[in-house]
Design goal:
mainly beta; four-stranded antiparallel β-sheet
Length: 104
């Protein structure tokens, strides 16, 4: 069984027992969260698609940790005018472990 949820402006495929990195959520470690914006649920034979979200379906997860991704270098350059800008960015994430997909 798997589901597609929307969090932080991205759509992520989740299944039970999986550990994922999602865009940062302000929570503490070992806290349980519920992801309610479920777009699709599939269990092998049946597929339910929301318009835009499914009602009565949620994904329960536990926060395992948080951190920052690897650094991405942004380099801007314009030729012949001595214009160079080098900027680095590290995107924060929250690591979760999916416990269950609940269908009411």
């Amino acid at each position: 069984m798997y589901a597609i949820v929307e969090t932080g402006g991205t759509q992520i495929k989740v299944s039970e027992g999986e550990i994922l990195r999602i865009p940062k959520i302000e929570t503490e470690i070992n806290q349980r969260i519920s992801l309610d914006k479920v777009l699709l649920v599939a269990d092998g034979q049946e597929v339910k698609i929301g318009h835009p979200y499914l009602e009565g379906v949620s994904v329960e997860a536990e926060v395992v940790g948080s951190g920052k991704e690897k650094k991405v270098t942004v380099f801007k350059f314009k030729r012949r005018v001595k214009y160079r800008r080098k900027i680095g960015h590290r995107q924060p994430y929250t690591e979760i472990k999916v416990s269950s997909i609940k269908i009411k």
